[in-house]
Amino acid sequence: MTDRPLRPETITAQLDHYLDEATGGVVPPLQPSTTFARDEAYALHNPDNTYSRYGAPVHRLAEDILTRLEGGTDALLFSSGMAAIAALGRTVRTGGTILLQEGIYHGTTVWMRNFCERRAVRLVTVDALDGDALSAAIRSEKPDLVLLETPSNPWIGLVDIKRAADEAHAVGAELAIDSTAATPILSRPLSFGADYVLHSATKSLNGHSDVLAGALIAARETERWAAIRADRNLAGAMLGPFEAWLLLRGMRTMALRIERASANALAVARFLDGHDRVALVRYPGLQSHPHHSLARTQMPGGFGCLMSFDITGDGADALAVAGRLKTIIRATSLGGVESVIEHRHTIEKDLGTGVPETMLRLSVGIEHSDDLIADLEQALIPTE
Ligand SMILES: *Cc1c(COP(=O)(O)O)cnc(C)c1O
Fold it and tell me: Ligand 1 centre from 357 Cα, in Å?
């Protein structure tokens, strides 16, 4: 035996070689208690467990696994991805500056706009897919916190994490990466210098579209991390033990799911790329993608489940294509075992995010790629 660290596939499949000491079970028990007893001398039965808003063994097991997968020092679960993002954002004081990427998950954009306005935090947004623009913005704005999302949703562009981290650190800023679309199977932002990585665990980490959860992982113990921990524990954006248990269950198959979804997505992207009803496909696995070479170094595990593509014609044509699909489900969200498609313009049209009417966002699941391609083929009929 060597001390070589275990690979993510092994860590997740075995839940870090989990063994329930009480029974020998290889699966963690679901302990729903919110409170934990003390003995005659008033000592806790187990000093780690007092009250479940601060976490219970099932939460800590999921956090330990995420810490190892991301190569961090600590992780915190939240009741949703947005709860994690809000806990991060709330660490910036009045008068401080947040630098936020344009064209990312709309919930993050809207929350940040509202929060920063209410709390007199300066919000600067930048097209971070343009590396020079991002560097210039960090240098001139000297933010406290930089929040980027890669691959971005729904534009599916990549940000060079190492370059962003170097620029941020040079002005004393900290860098957080929303890595929801990548997952720790495909990319590890902390290894490129990010200070925090976050996930909507609702998506690929759980992968079964049946749990709402979020996670933040820190590269090191910082003042901000202590504030985030206090916020999670006291503001109470904690998830229940059953959700944490389901998340653990989902993560056991994460590596396989991501591998299959990535392979399916590449096959689907190649099919769409050659189709005359498709004007443009955004998928980092395509050689034509502007960040393909960055994707090869920053996402060594594969290119993920998420893509977007533009239909020739107008918004009605895009909706008609989505409407003809029989296998791919018309629904929001991403990273589940089932393929889902969404017309983001319908959702975002009043938010000023500039999502084109002709764009469809597709999250590819683990079905057989032939079935997905056949479904898209019959939906992409020529216009009259
Ligand atoms: C879904 C999503 C979120 C928000 O997560 P919830 O779990 O829905 O709160 C944040 N970032 C990205 C990239 C997402 O896709």
Answer: 22
